[in-house]
């Protein structure tokens, strides 16, 4: 068990304009479950593969514990990886798949058998040890891939979208199993996913990457409640946060006729930067439907009912000065949803708005 | 060795990779193959071209440069024009008939019927068997006095009296072309069968829903999808048939005289019967250029740019 | 009314297919029947369909009347060693081109594709001159080199396709499990490429086994002549001994047809260089 340290780790593919991973600095504590998330092509898988030794590090360092592994081949890093497509050896049965690494390491047959059986018990795979991967279901294959990692008792688990080949229902149950297993084993884990629900539910901390750069790294709650920039704000949360450009006024920020409350401090900071134009964000749940003479009037274009929640997609016409339409999504009481085409009145709750600099995208504290 | 060892962008100081080894690494893996191709496939090409420009004695000793003498001697050869004409008929005839028959055969063997596996295996035999041996048995079957062909055709009443099939150059050529078709059918049919397997079942169902008849479905739906396979099979056949030597060699030796020679057997006879190695090399160069043209056509057919 | 029509169709189809099989096999059946006839019956005119007296002994006799053992030994040695050489050379090239991206990779694959189209027949004059220069006329080495070189392309293509179809992740998993490059190749990748290797081996073996033109050109004595060239000696004589010629032919044909049937389904993809999917 060990810490993992990315120290300015950079990967630059020949013939590309920017690095796939650009000076990545991350410290992952011993036993921590860190999730790397981001849109496709953001460098999350490349980062993971740099740790595993499957990808060259062009600049910077990667350390596992006290060891600098930057130049070490994968076999010397003591890392186990769960691949997206599981990468089970098709010509070996489940037991041989799980015991392969121990066999390569020259462990005794008895020890291998014992450790494989222990792992199989943990994962409910005892009845399948003699089967070839071909004869297993998707969920069973996934568990074998996990088992192959566990048997090793490695310093670090690397998991590259291990759930993306499962159907929706299985994904939810496996998600909790993996998280529980990791807590029980206490093995440092780096987990790559593009699914924010996985990121939010599984990770001790989440690092959100875009274009090879960490946008924010923190607990799931931090990312949700205090997004560091517009990208994080827009990426985390579903439906996405309402993000609109607006002008600062005396009372708050004005977006096409709707006034959103903005803290005094944020207004002051933005004003001192000399910019009246800011990007304002508020989550669908930060909106209240209010009486006719309050808030701003908007037309309902679509209502999405999810059972426990309902989301109301609305649009309202901007003031004459800047003609156009503004779309706003609001979470509403699912027991009395408005009808499509109906007019509702929206108001954003104070203290639940986020203000970002339009120029840099960075959060303006407030 | 890691997967991207050769695609490094920036190499940080202190971790300098042995770059020269990295650049030479492909040679380590490909070297033997390059050596074999270069030494045994490409060298003969060069050797052939050089020989065609040299004067070579009947015993095979080079006597100096001949310029274009070999080529002009070849052009003056009275048999050259008929041989080339025959080669064109040979290639075009065999390939056309083969492709037409194979289209039907592939369709037949694609359908389900009892014993399909066995029939497919039977079709393999002419492909796997030695070409010389197949040609020899055809020669035997076509023999004037002792051949089974005459017996069968007389018994069926197709002919009144036995014929000397291989004695008449025109008829001999036709029979040899049939043997050419016979040995080309399996490969062609198999390629087309593979092509048919790529036609999804839904296509047939969609066509049936649209109310198309079987023929209509075949011509407007299946055939167009089969075209890539057809193209590849045709070009490969053209090259193979063009190079086909054992059939003619075993059945008539290109005789009587040069009456059933194609450019391939003609070239061979020039070198090893007439001992005119220079002229033969000139013929070989011409032959080879034609093959190169066909290979270029082939590369177009397989859309080389999309591979790799 | 459609059921009888469908039945008719099926019967007709089956009949056609079996007829095709009959036509295709006819020459080889004739080969067998001739091989079983006594000498006198061969020169009966008109010939009989079946032997009147079945001479199964011809298949034993043939070993005595001609140096079949030597021819067969030559064929086996030449075909076997050509195969070993071709596949041994093709394996690393195929693996490397399937797994790595490097300068000249496309060039190499193009070269392979082009050489696949070059039959030794078209180059036989040049090959003869080269072997003359190297002093390899009438040697095994010449035939082995030529057979291996001209079959290299097929082996490389089919192995390249096989290696490409094996997910890289399997090798990566093996590396993480503690394997080095070579160990991962031997323990994980190669076992999975076995069908490709078998196809390459059998196809090369058969092509070399049946090769005629180069052997005809480069060999002149029974010490080096393979069976394909050797049996033509039966023809050169004053009176062709057809029964022995065909007995020897069948001895050469039967094993390769069996091997060929075994790799049938892999062949087309290899021969058409992956262009027909």
From TrEMBL, chain A:
Domain of life: Bacteria
Gene3D superfamilies: 2.40.50.100, Nucleic acid-binding proteins (2.40.50.140), P-loop containing nucleotide triphosphate hydrolases (3.40.50.300)
Keywords for this protein: ATP-binding, Nucleotide-binding, Transport
Gene Ontology terms for molecular function: ABC-type transporter activity; ATP binding; ATP hydrolysis activity
Coiled coil: none
GO biological process: carbohydrate transport
CDD domains according to UniProt: ABC_MalK_N
A cellular component annotation (GO) from this entry: ATP-binding cassette (ABC) transporter complex, substrate-binding subunit-containing
Location of the ABC transporter domain: 4-236
PROSITE patterns: ABC_TRANSPORTER_1, ABC_TRANSPORTER_2
Name this protein carries in UniProt: sn-glycerol-3-phosphate ABC transporter ATP-binding protein UgpC
UniProt gene name: ugpC
């Amino acid at each position: 068990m060990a810490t993992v340290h990315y120290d300015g780790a950079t990967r630059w593919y020949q013939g590309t304009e920017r690095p796939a991973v650009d000076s990545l600095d991350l410290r992952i504590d011993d036993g921590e479950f860190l999730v790397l998330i981001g849109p496709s092509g953001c460098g999350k898988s490349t980062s993971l593969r740099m740790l595993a030794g499957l990808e060259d590090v062009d600049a910077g360092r990667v350390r596992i514990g006290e060891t600098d592994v930057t130049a070490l081949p994968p076999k010397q890093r003591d890392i186990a990886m769960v691949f997206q497509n599981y990468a089970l050896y098709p010509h070996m049965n489940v037991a041989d798949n799980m015991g392969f690494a121990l066999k390569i390491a020259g462990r005794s047959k008895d020890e291998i058998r014992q450790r494989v059986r222990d792992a199989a018990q943990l994962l409910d795979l005892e009845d399948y040890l003699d089967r070839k991967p071909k004869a297993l279901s998707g969920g069973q294959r996934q568990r074998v891939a996990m088992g192959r990692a566990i048997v090793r008792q490695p310093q670090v688990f690397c998991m590259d979208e291990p759930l993306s080949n499962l159907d929706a229902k299985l994904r939810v149950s496996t998600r909790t199993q993996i998280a529980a297993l990791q807590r029980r084993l206490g093995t440092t884990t780096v987990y790559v996913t593009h699914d924010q629900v996985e990121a939010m539910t599984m990770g001790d901390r989440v690092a959100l990457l875009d274009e090879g750069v960490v946008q924010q790294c923190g607990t799931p709650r931090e990312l949700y409640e205090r997004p560091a920039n517009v990208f994080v704000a827009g990426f985390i949360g579903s439906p996405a946060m309402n993000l609109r450009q607006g002008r600062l006024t005396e009372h708050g920020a004005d977006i096409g006729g709707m006034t959103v409350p903005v803290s005094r401090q944020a207004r002051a900071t933005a004003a001192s930067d000399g910019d009246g134009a800011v990007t304002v964000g508020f989550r669908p749940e930060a909106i209240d439907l209010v009486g006719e003479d309050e808030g701003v009037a908007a037309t309902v274009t679509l209502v999405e009912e999810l059972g426990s929640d309902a989301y109301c997609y609305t649009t309202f016409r901007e003031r004459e000065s800047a003609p156009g339409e503004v779309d706003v999504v609001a979470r509403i009481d699912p027991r009395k949803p408005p009808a499509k085409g109906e007019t509702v009145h929206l108001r954003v709750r104070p203290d639940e708005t986020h203000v970002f600099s339009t120029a840099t995208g960075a959060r303006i504290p407030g | 060795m890691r997967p991207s060892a050769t695609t490094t962008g920036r190499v940080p100081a202190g971790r300098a990779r042995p770059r020269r080894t990295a650049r030479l690494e492909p040679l380590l893996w490909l070297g033997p193959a390059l050596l074999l191709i270069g030494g045994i496939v490409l060298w003969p090409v060069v050797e052939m071209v050089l020989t065609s420009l040299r004067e070579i004695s009947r015993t095979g000793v080079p006597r100096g440069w001949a310029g274009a003498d070999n080529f002009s001697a070849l052009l003056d050869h009275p048999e050259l024009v008929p041989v080339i004409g025959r080669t064109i008929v040979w290639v075009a005839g065999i390939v056309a008939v083969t492709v037409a028959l194979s289209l039907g055969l592939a369709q037949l063997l694609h359908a389900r019927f009892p014993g399909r596996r066995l029939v497919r295996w039977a079709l393999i035999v002419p492909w796997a068997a030695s070409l010389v041996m197949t040609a020899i048995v055809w020669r035997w079957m076509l023999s004037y006095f002792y051949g089974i062909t005459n017996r069968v055709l007389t018994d069926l009443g197709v002919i009144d009296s036995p014929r000397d099939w291989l004695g008449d150059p025109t008829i001999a050529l036709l029979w040899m072309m049939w043997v050419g078709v016979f040995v080309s059918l399996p490969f062609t049919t198999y390629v087309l069968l593979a092509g048919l397997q790529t036609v999804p079942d839904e296509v047939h169902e969609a066509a049936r829903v649209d109310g198309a008849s079987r023929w209509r479905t075949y011509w407007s739906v299946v055939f167009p999808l089969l075209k890539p396979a057809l193209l590849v099979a045709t070009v490969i056949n053209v090259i193979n048939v063009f190079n086909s030597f054992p059939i003619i060699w075993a059945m008539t030796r290109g005789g009587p005289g040069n009456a059933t020679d194609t450019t391939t057997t003609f070239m061979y006879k020039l070198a090893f019967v007439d001992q005119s190695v220079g002229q033969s090399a000139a013929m070989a160069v011409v032959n080879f250029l034609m093959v190169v043209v066909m290979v270029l056509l082939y590369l177009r057919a397989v859309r080389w740019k999309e591979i790799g | 009314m459609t059921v009888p029509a469908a039945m008719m169709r099926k019967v007709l189809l089956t009949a056609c297919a079996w007829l095709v099989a009959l036509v295709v096999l006819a020459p080889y059946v004739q080969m067998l029947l001739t091989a079983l006839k006594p000498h006198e019956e061969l020169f009966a005119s008109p010939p009989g369909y079946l032997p009147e007296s079945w001479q199964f002994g011809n298949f034993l006799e043939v070993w005595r009347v001609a140096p079949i053992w030597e021819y067969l030994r030559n064929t086996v040695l030449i075909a076997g060693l050509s195969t070993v050489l071709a596949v041994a050379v093709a394996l690393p090239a195929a693996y490397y081109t399937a797994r790595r991206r490097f300068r000249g990779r496309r060039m190499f694959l193009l070269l392979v594709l082009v050489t696949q189209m070059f039959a030794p027949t078209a180059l036989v004059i040049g090959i003869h001159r080269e072997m003359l220069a190297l002093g390899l006329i009438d040697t095994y080495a010449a035939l082995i080199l030529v057979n291996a070189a001209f079959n290299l392309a097929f082996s490389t293509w089919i192995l390249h396709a096989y290696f490409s179809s094996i997910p890289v992740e399997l090798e990566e998993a093996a590396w993480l499990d503690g394997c080095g490059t070579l160990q991962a190749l031997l323990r994980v990748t190669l076992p999975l490429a076995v069908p490709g290797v078998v196809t390459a081996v059998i196809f090369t073996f058969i092509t070399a086994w049946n090769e005629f033109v180069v052997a005809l050109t480069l060999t002149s004595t029974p010490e080096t002549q393979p069976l394909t060239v050797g049996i033509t000696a039966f023809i050169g004589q004053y009176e062709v001994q057809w029964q022995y010629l065909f007995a020897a032919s069948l001895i050469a044909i039967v094993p390769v047809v069996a091997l060929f049937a075994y790799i049938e389904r892999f062949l087309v993809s290899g021969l058409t260089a992956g262009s027909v999917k």
